[in-house]
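Bug #77: duplicate submission created two jobs. Keeping one. Sequence:
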Amino acid sequence: MEKVSFISNNPEDLLNLRSSLLTWFKIHKRNLPWRSNPNLYKTVLSEFMLQQTRIETALPYFYRWTESFPDFKALAEANLDSVLKHWEGLGYYNRARNLHKVAQYITQSGKIPSSFEEWKKLPGIGDYTAAAISSIEQNLSVAVVDGNVVRVLARLTNQENTFKGNSDAVNFFRPLANKLIDQNSPGDFNQAMMELGATLCQKAKPQCQKCPLIKHCKGLKFHAKNIKYLPRIKRTQKEKITLERAIVFKRSSILLHKINSDSKRLRDHYEIPLMELIDGSFSTKKLKPITRGRRAISNQSIEENWYKIEKSFVNPHLLTQENGFYWVDLKKIDSILLTGPHRRWLKNLLKIQNAKEVDLINN
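Kept job's structure:
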């Protein structure tokens, strides 16, 4: 793949591009809580939350989080279960664990990383997060390159190469991003590039006529009708998975399965148990699911079918805490770590059943 050419070899054009973008950002930037009275803690927290999560989704979590953990010290001293509980629903829970470790390191060592490379040594911090934190809070000239920035740069340069994946595109455009960054205001420039990609240079409906960089955009000049297709990135086809789970009640309690603490994903969380775990020989062919749910994790598209199973049909010898099974009082559901989708689906199911005046509880 050939190297990307710069937008212009004329220094005045480059200065004009930076000035136009920064002026636009100053006027049009969104009012976000981490931009209001900014500090290092807010920036670190927001960058962790915005890994794999949209701003609209992260906002209520940010507000609740900062009420409970207003600074690094409060977070460092918090119990991990409490930290994970506050993160519940955001997914990718290792982000919360790593953020907790970062807070503990900064609090206990009294040291703040002072370079891009030093930030990368901390748990959960890669190129993107290190560049964002070091540029926004420490004025270091390191470009942030995420999906939004890739899209802006691919269109500005009319780059029609097909990339193998997102990381391939990020690595391709990083040298250009570092060339373009404003040395005097690297933090604002990085935020402006991301903001432009998120609000105007969108995937399907780019608002080119409102773009502050319209006169610099080769994509609009040479590829106007198809600019929405840039960048060209091969998307990994999602693996489709179907899971069958058992809803089992005992009086006012529900049977839940606790995910092994050695698990890479969602460890120590509770979930509705898989049918195969309560009885591998049980057949659902003649049963109708009482609810269905769909969710996506990484490159997996998951459909879950939930079946109401009478307690008497379940092998009691399997339902032990050694096997990860717990009877949890329905009134205490809110106090445990339950996977986000399962909490939503279970609450909705109970609400519907109660509205129909159907007793779900096995006496």
